[in-house]
Protein backbone atom coordinates (compact mmCIF):
# COMPACT_ATOMS: atom_id res chain seq x y z
CA UNK A 1 0.00 0.00 0.00
CA UNK A 2 1.31 3.46 -0.89
CA UNK A 3 1.07 6.70 1.08
CA UNK A 4 -2.55 7.73 1.58
CA UNK A 5 -3.47 11.37 1.07
CA UNK A 6 -7.06 12.41 1.68
CA UNK A 7 -9.29 15.28 2.69
CA UNK A 8 -11.95 14.89 5.36
CA UNK A 9 -14.96 17.14 5.73
CA UNK A 10 -16.62 18.41 8.88
CA UNK A 11 -18.92 15.42 9.21
CA UNK A 12 -17.55 12.87 11.73
CA UNK A 13 -17.73 10.03 9.20
CA UNK A 14 -14.73 7.71 9.23
CA UNK A 15 -12.75 6.81 6.11
CA UNK A 16 -11.38 3.29 6.69
CA UNK A 17 -8.31 1.52 5.33
CA UNK A 18 -6.66 -1.79 6.35
CA UNK A 19 -3.85 -1.76 8.90
CA UNK A 20 -3.11 -4.74 11.15
CA UNK A 21 0.58 -3.84 11.67
CA UNK A 22 0.14 -2.44 15.17
CA UNK A 23 1.50 0.94 14.14
CA UNK A 24 0.28 4.05 12.31
CA UNK A 25 2.21 7.18 11.49
CA UNK A 26 0.58 10.19 9.89
CA UNK A 27 0.39 13.95 9.53
CA UNK A 28 -2.78 15.95 9.73
CA UNK A 29 -3.68 19.58 9.11
CA UNK A 30 -6.83 20.56 11.01
CA UNK A 31 -7.92 23.23 13.42
CA UNK A 32 -9.29 20.73 15.92
CA UNK A 33 -10.81 17.26 16.31
CA UNK A 34 -8.67 14.86 14.30
CA UNK A 35 -10.42 11.56 15.07
CA UNK A 36 -9.07 8.05 14.48
CA UNK A 37 -10.81 4.70 14.92
CA UNK A 38 -9.10 1.32 15.49
CA UNK A 39 -11.52 -1.44 14.52
CA UNK A 40 -11.90 -5.11 13.65
CA UNK A 41 -13.79 -4.28 10.43
CA UNK A 42 -14.12 -1.37 8.00
CA UNK A 43 -17.07 0.10 9.87
CA UNK A 44 -18.07 1.70 13.16
CA UNK A 45 -19.06 -1.27 15.30
CA UNK A 46 -18.17 -2.63 18.70
CA UNK A 47 -15.53 -3.45 19.68
CA UNK A 48 -13.59 -0.36 18.61
CA UNK A 49 -11.22 2.23 20.01
CA UNK A 50 -11.25 5.90 19.15
CA UNK A 51 -8.45 8.43 19.51
CA UNK A 52 -9.45 12.10 19.45
CA UNK A 53 -6.54 14.52 18.98
CA UNK A 54 -7.24 18.19 19.64
CA UNK A 55 -10.83 17.75 20.73
CA UNK A 56 -12.93 20.17 22.75
CA UNK A 57 -11.74 23.21 20.83
CA UNK A 58 -8.17 21.91 20.40
CA UNK A 59 -7.74 21.73 24.17
CA UNK A 60 -7.42 18.02 25.01
CA UNK A 61 -7.00 14.54 23.56
CA UNK A 62 -8.65 11.30 24.62
CA UNK A 63 -8.87 7.54 24.06
CA UNK A 64 -12.36 6.05 24.09
CA UNK A 65 -13.62 2.45 23.86
CA UNK A 66 -16.91 1.51 22.21
CA UNK A 67 -18.04 5.16 22.00
CA UNK A 68 -18.81 5.25 25.72
CA UNK A 69 -17.98 7.77 28.43
CA UNK A 70 -16.09 8.48 30.55
CA UNK A 71 -13.01 8.36 28.33
CA UNK A 72 -10.47 5.71 29.32
CA UNK A 73 -7.61 8.22 28.86
CA UNK A 74 -7.67 12.02 28.74
CA UNK A 75 -4.80 14.53 28.67
CA UNK A 76 -4.64 18.31 28.18
CA UNK A 77 -3.10 19.12 24.77
CA UNK A 78 -3.80 22.81 24.12
CA UNK A 79 -2.89 23.89 20.58
CA UNK A 80 -1.81 20.41 19.49
CA UNK A 81 -3.38 20.86 16.02
CA UNK A 82 -3.07 23.71 13.54
CA UNK A 83 -5.39 24.56 10.66
CA UNK A 84 -2.51 26.05 8.64
CA UNK A 85 0.24 23.44 9.01
CA UNK A 86 0.66 19.67 9.15
CA UNK A 87 1.38 18.14 12.55
CA UNK A 88 2.83 14.62 12.77
CA UNK A 89 1.75 11.85 15.14
CA UNK A 90 2.02 8.10 15.66
CA UNK A 91 -0.26 5.51 17.24
CA UNK A 92 0.84 2.05 18.36
CA UNK A 93 -1.35 -0.80 19.58
CA UNK A 94 0.30 -3.91 21.01
CA UNK A 95 -0.74 -6.43 23.67
CA UNK A 96 -3.77 -4.33 24.51
CA UNK A 97 -1.80 -1.11 25.03
CA UNK A 98 -2.65 1.89 22.85
CA UNK A 99 -0.02 4.64 22.79
CA UNK A 100 -0.23 8.01 21.04
CA UNK A 101 2.73 10.31 20.46
CA UNK A 102 4.03 13.25 18.47
CA UNK A 103 6.41 13.14 15.52
CA UNK A 104 10.07 13.06 16.64
CA UNK A 105 9.11 12.22 20.23
CA UNK A 106 9.69 8.72 21.63
CA UNK A 107 7.58 8.79 24.82
CA UNK A 108 3.83 8.89 24.16
CA UNK A 109 1.77 11.77 25.45
CA UNK A 110 -1.19 9.46 26.01
CA UNK A 111 -1.59 5.71 26.53
CA UNK A 112 -3.98 3.15 27.98
CA UNK A 113 -4.02 -0.64 28.40
CA UNK A 114 -7.15 -2.67 27.76
CA UNK A 115 -7.23 -6.09 29.42
CA UNK A 116 -9.64 -7.28 26.73
CA UNK A 117 -7.32 -7.54 23.75
CA UNK A 118 -9.02 -6.66 20.46
CA UNK A 119 -7.50 -7.67 17.10
CA UNK A 120 -7.23 -4.42 15.14
CA UNK A 121 -7.51 -4.84 11.37
CA UNK A 122 -8.61 -1.37 10.18
CA UNK A 123 -7.96 2.29 10.91
CA UNK A 124 -10.41 5.08 10.17
CA UNK A 125 -9.89 8.86 10.12
CA UNK A 126 -12.29 11.79 10.15
CA UNK A 127 -12.73 15.37 11.31
CA UNK A 128 -15.66 17.24 12.78
CA UNK A 129 -16.93 19.85 15.22
CA UNK A 130 -16.23 22.65 12.73
CA UNK A 131 -12.97 21.29 11.32
CA UNK A 132 -11.95 19.95 7.92
CA UNK A 133 -8.77 17.92 7.63
CA UNK A 134 -5.93 17.10 5.26
CA UNK A 135 -4.18 13.79 5.98
CA UNK A 136 -0.94 12.13 4.86
CA UNK A 137 -0.80 8.54 6.13
CA UNK A 138 2.21 6.27 5.73
CA UNK A 139 1.68 2.65 4.68
CA UNK A 140 2.08 -0.07 7.32
CA UNK A 141 5.68 -1.19 7.68
CA UNK A 142 5.82 -4.92 8.48
CA UNK A 143 6.08 -4.36 12.22
CA UNK A 144 6.08 -0.60 12.37
CA UNK A 145 9.75 0.13 12.75
CA UNK A 146 9.31 3.82 12.09
CA UNK A 147 11.38 5.79 9.65
CA UNK A 148 9.76 8.28 7.27
CA UNK A 149 8.44 11.67 8.35
CA UNK A 150 11.35 11.90 10.81
CA UNK A 151 9.85 9.43 13.27
CA UNK A 152 12.24 7.70 15.67
CA UNK A 153 13.03 4.07 14.96
CA UNK A 154 11.09 2.92 18.02
CA UNK A 155 8.53 5.70 18.27
CA UNK A 156 6.65 4.75 21.41
CA UNK A 157 6.98 3.42 24.88
CA UNK A 158 6.92 -0.07 23.39
CA UNK A 159 9.78 -1.68 21.56
CA UNK A 160 9.36 -2.23 17.84
CA UNK A 161 7.15 -5.26 17.08
CA UNK A 162 9.66 -6.50 14.51
CA UNK A 163 12.11 -7.11 17.35
CA UNK A 164 9.44 -8.56 19.60
CA UNK A 165 7.64 -10.77 17.08
CA UNK A 166 8.33 -14.02 18.95
CA UNK A 167 7.73 -12.56 22.40
CA UNK A 168 4.45 -12.50 24.30
CA UNK A 169 3.76 -9.83 26.89
CA UNK A 170 0.42 -10.48 28.58
CA UNK A 171 -1.33 -7.69 30.54
CA UNK A 172 -1.95 -8.19 34.23
CA UNK A 173 -2.68 -6.27 37.40
CA UNK A 174 -3.08 -6.71 41.13
CA UNK A 175 -0.58 -9.58 41.38
CA UNK A 176 -2.30 -11.73 38.73
CA UNK A 177 -0.01 -14.14 36.88
CA UNK A 178 -1.12 -15.18 33.36
CA UNK A 179 -0.67 -18.76 32.09
CA UNK A 180 2.86 -19.79 31.08
CA UNK A 181 4.45 -16.74 32.71
CA UNK A 182 8.26 -16.68 32.61
CA UNK A 183 9.90 -17.18 36.01
CA UNK A 184 13.02 -15.08 36.44
CA UNK A 185 13.94 -15.48 40.09
CA UNK A 186 12.70 -16.19 43.61
CA UNK A 187 12.48 -14.58 47.02
CA UNK A 188 11.93 -16.67 50.16
CA UNK A 189 10.73 -19.54 47.98
CA UNK A 190 8.17 -17.45 46.07
CA UNK A 191 8.65 -17.24 42.27
CA UNK A 192 9.49 -13.85 40.78
CA UNK A 193 8.24 -13.20 37.26
CA UNK A 194 9.66 -10.98 34.51
CA UNK A 195 7.43 -7.98 33.84
CA UNK A 196 7.51 -4.48 32.44
CA UNK A 197 5.42 -1.45 33.31
CA UNK A 198 4.91 2.11 32.16
CA UNK A 199 6.39 4.71 34.48
CA UNK A 200 7.24 8.38 33.90
CA UNK A 201 7.35 8.10 30.11
CA UNK A 202 9.34 4.87 29.96
CA UNK A 203 8.54 1.18 29.67
CA UNK A 204 10.61 -0.34 32.47
CA UNK A 205 11.47 -4.03 33.04
CA UNK A 206 11.06 -5.24 36.59
CA UNK A 207 9.77 -8.00 38.84
CA UNK A 208 6.38 -9.34 39.83
CA UNK A 209 5.98 -10.75 43.34
CA UNK A 210 2.40 -12.11 43.18
CA UNK A 211 1.76 -12.12 46.93
CA UNK A 212 2.44 -8.36 47.03
CA UNK A 213 -0.32 -7.60 44.53
CA UNK A 214 1.94 -5.29 42.49
CA UNK A 215 5.02 -5.36 40.33
CA UNK A 216 8.16 -3.39 41.12
CA UNK A 217 10.34 -1.47 38.67
CA UNK A 218 13.60 0.35 39.37
CA UNK A 219 13.58 4.04 38.48
CA UNK A 220 14.81 7.30 39.96
CA UNK A 221 16.75 5.62 42.76
CA UNK A 222 13.64 3.92 44.11
CA UNK A 223 11.73 0.64 44.04
CA UNK A 224 8.46 1.74 42.41
CA UNK A 225 5.29 -0.30 42.96
CA UNK A 226 2.99 -0.42 39.90
CA UNK A 227 -0.41 -2.12 39.94
CA UNK A 228 -0.74 -2.69 36.16
CA UNK A 229 1.96 -4.41 34.13
CA UNK A 230 2.80 -6.84 31.33
CA UNK A 231 4.17 -10.31 32.09
CA UNK A 232 6.62 -12.15 29.83
CA UNK A 233 5.01 -15.44 28.72
CA UNK A 234 5.80 -18.42 26.48
CA UNK A 235 9.45 -17.38 26.33
CA UNK A 236 12.12 -20.01 25.54
CA UNK A 237 15.09 -17.80 26.42
CA UNK A 238 17.96 -18.25 28.83
CA UNK A 239 20.21 -16.27 31.16
CA UNK A 240 23.89 -15.62 30.45
CA UNK A 241 26.59 -13.81 32.42
CA UNK A 242 27.14 -10.19 31.48
CA UNK A 243 28.82 -7.04 32.76
CA UNK A 244 28.77 -3.32 32.14
CA UNK A 245 27.21 -2.15 28.91
CA UNK A 246 28.38 -5.13 26.85
CA UNK A 247 24.96 -6.21 25.63
CA UNK A 248 24.90 -9.47 23.63
CA UNK A 249 23.23 -9.16 20.20
CA UNK A 250 20.49 -11.66 21.11
CA UNK A 251 19.50 -9.94 24.35
CA UNK A 252 15.75 -9.48 24.77
CA UNK A 253 14.75 -5.85 24.23
CA UNK A 254 12.03 -5.46 26.85
CA UNK A 255 11.39 -1.73 27.02
CA UNK A 256 12.97 1.67 26.86
CA UNK A 257 13.82 4.57 29.10
CA UNK A 258 11.99 7.87 29.06
CA UNK A 259 14.80 9.12 26.80
CA UNK A 260 14.33 6.29 24.29
CA UNK A 261 17.30 4.10 25.32
CA UNK A 262 16.58 0.35 24.92
CA UNK A 263 16.29 -1.55 28.19
CA UNK A 264 16.96 -5.24 28.78
CA UNK A 265 16.11 -7.76 31.47
CA UNK A 266 18.77 -8.57 34.03
CA UNK A 267 18.96 -10.34 37.37
CA UNK A 268 21.33 -10.63 40.32
CA UNK A 269 21.51 -12.44 43.64
CA UNK A 270 21.15 -9.94 46.45
CA UNK A 271 20.39 -10.52 50.12
CA UNK A 272 19.59 -14.16 49.42
CA UNK A 273 17.04 -13.38 46.69
CA UNK A 274 17.40 -13.86 42.94
CA UNK A 275 15.92 -10.57 41.81
CA UNK A 276 14.91 -9.35 38.34
CA UNK A 277 15.48 -5.79 37.12
CA UNK A 278 16.51 -3.68 34.14
CA UNK A 279 19.80 -3.42 32.27
CA UNK A 280 20.52 0.11 31.02
CA UNK A 281 23.49 -0.04 28.65
CA UNK A 282 24.29 3.66 28.89
CA UNK A 283 24.77 3.31 32.64
CA UNK A 284 26.71 0.04 32.37
CA UNK A 285 24.77 -1.66 35.16
CA UNK A 286 21.77 -3.78 36.03
CA UNK A 287 19.31 -2.03 38.33
CA UNK A 288 17.06 -4.05 40.60
CA UNK A 289 14.13 -2.89 42.72
CA UNK A 290 14.75 -4.10 46.25
CA UNK A 291 13.95 -2.94 49.78
CA UNK A 292 12.46 0.33 48.55
CA UNK A 293 15.57 1.25 46.58
CA UNK A 294 16.98 1.05 43.06
CA UNK A 295 20.25 -0.85 43.48
CA UNK A 296 22.92 -1.07 40.76
CA UNK A 297 25.24 -3.97 39.90
CA UNK A 298 27.97 -3.96 37.22
CA UNK A 299 27.95 -7.80 37.00
CA UNK A 300 24.69 -9.59 36.33
CA UNK A 301 22.86 -12.11 34.18
CA UNK A 302 21.00 -10.92 31.12
CA UNK A 303 18.04 -12.56 29.40
CA UNK A 304 18.67 -13.60 25.79
CA UNK A 305 16.54 -15.14 23.05
Automatic annotation (TrEMBL):
It comes from the Eukaryota. InterPro entries: DM9_repeat, Methyltransf_FA. Residues 12-139 form the Farnesoic acid O-methyl transferase domain. Transmembrane segments: none annotated. PANTHER family: AGAP009604-PA, FARNESOIC ACID O-METHYL TRANSFERASE DOMAIN-CONTAINING PROTEIN. This is Farnesoic acid O-methyl transferase domain-containing protein. It comes from Phaedon cochleariae.
Amino acid sequence: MSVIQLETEDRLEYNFFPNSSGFLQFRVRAGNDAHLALTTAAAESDPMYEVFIGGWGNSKSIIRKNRTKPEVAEVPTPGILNANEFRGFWIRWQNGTISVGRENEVPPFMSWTDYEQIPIEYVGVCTGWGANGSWVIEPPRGGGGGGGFGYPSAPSNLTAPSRMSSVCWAPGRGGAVPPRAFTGGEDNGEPIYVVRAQLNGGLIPGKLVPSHGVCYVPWGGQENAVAEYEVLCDFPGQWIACSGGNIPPNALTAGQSEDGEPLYVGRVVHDGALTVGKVQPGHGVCYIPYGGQELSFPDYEILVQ
